[in-house]
Amino acid sequence: MQDEFHRIRRLPPYVFAEVNAAKAKARAVGEDIIDLGMGNPDSPTPPHIVAKLIETVQDPRSHRYSTSKGIPGLRRALANYYQRRFNVTLNPETEVVATLGSKEGLANLAAAITSPGDTILVPNPSYPIHQFGFIIAGAAVRSIPATPDEDMLQALDRAVRHSVPKPTALIVNFPSNPTAYLASLDFYREIVAFARRHEIWVMSDLAYAEIYFGDNIPPSILEVPGAKDIAVEFTSLSKTYSMPGWRMGFAAGNPKLINALTRMKSYLDYGAFTPIQVAATAALNGPQDCVQEMRDLYRERRDVLVKGLHAAGWDVPSPDGSMFAWAPIPPRFAHLGSLEFSKLLMARARVAVAPGIGFGEHGDGHVRIALVENTHRLRQALRNIRAFLQTDNAGPADDSAVSDQDMKVAAK
Fold it and tell me: What is the average per-residue pLDDT within 8-23?
């Protein structure tokens, strides 16, 4: 028998699982590792959302199978959110489907619309499911620049002219994970015009729509007239309402794509637990001051982190959105690449970050730093990093706490 199944052979080790294994090994020998690796919000879910969950779960009728596409009230709540936030009108029956987090929705839609050998355009670097959702479905992925500018638009033009077969779908993600780039509505207009002209589906990941720190408020691609002809957008409650473990997300937009995802899900799941859907409805319809509080919290952490890194001699751009800093590896460590540099940080500064290569080979000059620890722990991490940068000679990490096998991450 073969050692690995066909689809599994196309999947390298998942970056977060590998980094978590290394972190666990270090902690097992007594190391205090400050975890800035996985984008796992640490704030509690707002009390009124938790209260609605508790209230609903006490009704035995809520313990039965739910609705795969989402209960009607939840889909209406998402449509209302799009109306007030983006001035976009959605039909909750045909243009909205609830998902088990945006990640599940992206993967299942990829499976629904992909034929083996299709060409899919994906930014590099980008969140792994953007690429591997389609690879699992049998597609070939063509990388394009991750920046929302002329470089991406020119790469799209080259891809249409030179790819065989012609691309069938394009992924966009702004605010971006991992790069924290933000796109403008004018940029989305260019994307929509291009996709309509070449009959290419667009899948927009808007999971970080509400995490922004200035006047540049992230738009939705669905704000562009005609976008619903070719685009579907995924969003999530995980970051907006600190509900990552609840696994509640949505897809909205083109009715044909929404129908394809709905049909796929009808064979695979019965939807999220009904009390979670009811609580998610309360999140979308209820008071939104918790969203501003979350935004203020991440802004404070961003400012502490970036200021502290600059003081330590590490020049890291200040992100305008998302919950990440996309940090260029300091020049004297650049020859190591993101994997070895991450090993050094964990072994010698006791700080875990995500190696950029885990998001694609074009991310190898960076590491992603998540704003998921309180300011006290961030300042502790900064002290450790400063001491590391002032004393380390850019040699390889010792393997007493972290081995090469622990941190093995394939370029993806």
Answer: 72
Cα distance between residue 213 and residue 201, in whole Å: 30
350 sits in the region (left: phi over 0; alpha: psi -120 to 50; else beta) called: left
76-107 tens-digit pLDDT: 999 999 999 999 999 999 999 999 999 999 99
Is the pLDDT at 407 greater than 90? The verdict is no
Helix axes 274-285, 47-57, angle to 10 degrees: 150
Distance of CA 374 to the CA centre of its chain: 21
Residue 377: φ, ψ to 5°? -70, -35
Round to whole Å and give the CA distance between 19 and 38: 9
> Residue 397: which pLDDT band, with cuts at 50, 70 and 90?
low
**pLDDT tens-digit readout, 202-240:** 999 999 999 999 899 999 999 999 999 999 999 999 999
Domains along the chain? 6-44+290-391 (3.90.1150.10), 47-285 (3.40.640.10)
The per-residue b/e assignment along 369-392, b for 16 or more CB within 10 angstroms, e otherwise, is: bbbbbeeebbebbbebbbebbeeb
Q: Using CA atoms, how far apart are residues 77 and 184, in angstroms rounded to an integer?
A: 25
pTM, rounded to two decimals: 0.91
The Cα–Cα gap between 339 and 326 comes to 15
d(CA 157, CA 3): 40
Q: How far apart, in whole angstroms, are the C-alpha atoms of residue 310 and residue 375? A: 16
